[in-house]
Amino acid sequence: MSKRIIVASGNEGKIREINEIMSAKDVEIVSMKAAGIVLDIVEDGTSFKENALIKAKAVWDALNEKEIVLADDSGLEVDYLNKEPGIYSARYMGEDTPYSIKNAKIIERLDGVPKEERTGRFVCAVAAVLPDGEEIIVQETMEGYIGYEERGTNGFGYDPIFRPEGYECSSGELPMEEKNEISHRGKAFRKMWSVIKDRI
Fold it and tell me: CB burial class (10 A; 0-12, 13-18, 19+) of residue 44?
C-alpha cells in the first residue's frame, strides 16, 4: 500500500501547508516535480472542483506506477466584485504579477466600500485520484472580509488582505498552526484525509 501522496502542484508554499496539515499522518507528501512529473496543465474548468480534478487526473495519468494523487484548486471570492477573482485567483492580473500588486488592486477596487459589504471567502476544492482510478472531491471555505491594507507575512497570496470571520487580524498574521485549524485548505485536506486514510 502507498505511503506517499503526490500533490499536483509546484507551489512550495502550498506543499508546506499540506505537510503541516497532514504532518502527523506518517505519509510522505511530495510535489509533482519531486515525483519526476513535469507537465503544463491547462486548468480550463468552470469551478474549483473541476480544476482540482483536471490537475489530479493529469498527474495520475502521467504516472507509470499508480499512486494517490491530490490536487487542490483554491482562490478568493469577493462578493462585492461578483466573486472575483474566483477560479482566476492565481491568474488575476497575470500569473507573474506579484501578490502585493494584486492585493493592492483589490483594495483599490473596494475603495469606499463599508466593512459589511467587503465580505468574501477563500474556497478550496481538493480532488484525489486513488491508485485504482477512483475519484473523490471535497470542498471547504473560510469566510471573512477584505481588509483595508496588507498585514502580516505568514502565509502567501491573498492572506495579508483577508480577515477571517471572528478575527481582528489578517490570515497573513496568524501562526501557521492556528491558520490551518480554520483555513479553507486545512478544512478541505482534513476532510479528504478522513476519506482516504484507510486506503493508504
Answer: exposed
For the chain, give every domain's residue range. Answer: 4-199
| Beta pairing class for 4-7 and 68-78 | parallel
- Angstrom distance (rounded) from CA 93 to CA 113: 21
Nearest to 113 by CA among 86, 148, 141, 61: 148
The CATH fold of domain 4-199? Maf protein (3.90.950)
Residue-wise pLDDT for 53-111, tens only, equals 999 999 999 999 999 999 999 999 999 999 999 999 999 999 899 999 999 999 999 99
Q: Which residues are catalytic?
A: 73
Encode pLDDT of 137-170 as tens digits. Answer: 999 999 999 999 999 998 789 999 999 999 999 9
* Residue listed under C-alpha cell 486548468: 43
Within its chain, how far is the Cα of 59 from the centroid?
A: 17
Cα 36 to Cα 52, 61, 62, 98: the distances in Å are 20, 13, 10, 27
User: What is residue 24's predicted lDDT score, i.e. its pLDDT?
Assistant: 60
Phi, psi of 124 (to 5 degrees): -135, 120
Q: Exposure of 25 by Cβ count < 10 A (0-12 exposed, 13-18 middle, 19+ buried)?
A: middle
**Is the distance from CB of 162 to CB of 146 less than 8 angstroms?**
yes
Do residues 135 and 185 touch, judged by C-beta distance below 8 A? no
